[in-house]
Amino acid sequence: QVQLVESGGGLVQAGGSLKLSCAASGRTSSIGNMGWFRQAPGKEREFVASINWSGGRTNYADSVKGRFTISRDNAKNTVYLEMTSLKPEDTAVFYCAAKRGIGGPYNYWGQGTQVTVSE
Fold it and tell me: How do strand 68-73 and strand 78-83 relate by DSSP bridges?
């Protein structure tokens, strides 16, 4: 099993920045692609960004392209999401997720960290 723990959320003013971290533990050797998702109040959870094992391939939701950057440090079993130019509509609970390998569904999920962007 793999455990994921997010940190770094908080309250920030519009235009500000935050950097989220997700630390993996357990059978980390089984982890392949990782991603970030978010869920705003009253909305479904949505994809934010993903990164492959080597970090050489990333994908972003259109709504965050150019503002968010996903990265990972496999030596630390940690994935990051650097968020800049934050907007009130970015307010959500952000979740980290990991796959066993490349394809298929995300198999492991963290508990989430709250990001609140004020006007």
Answer: antiparallel
Write b or e for each residue in 59-78: b if 16 or more Cβ atoms lie within 10 A of its Cβ, otherwise e: ebeeebeeebbbebeeeebb
The average confidence (pLDDT) of the chain is: 96
Tens of pLDDT along 88-109?
999 999 999 999 988 889 999 9
Q: What local confidence, expressed as pLDDT, does residue 119 receive?
A: 93
Q: Which of 98, 92, 93, 83 is nearest to 22 (CA)?
A: 98
Of 38, 29, 30, residue with least CA distance to 81: 38
pLDDT for position 102? 82
Reading the block at residue 101, the tokens are 């390998």
The whole-angstrom separation of Cα 107 and Cα 8 is 23
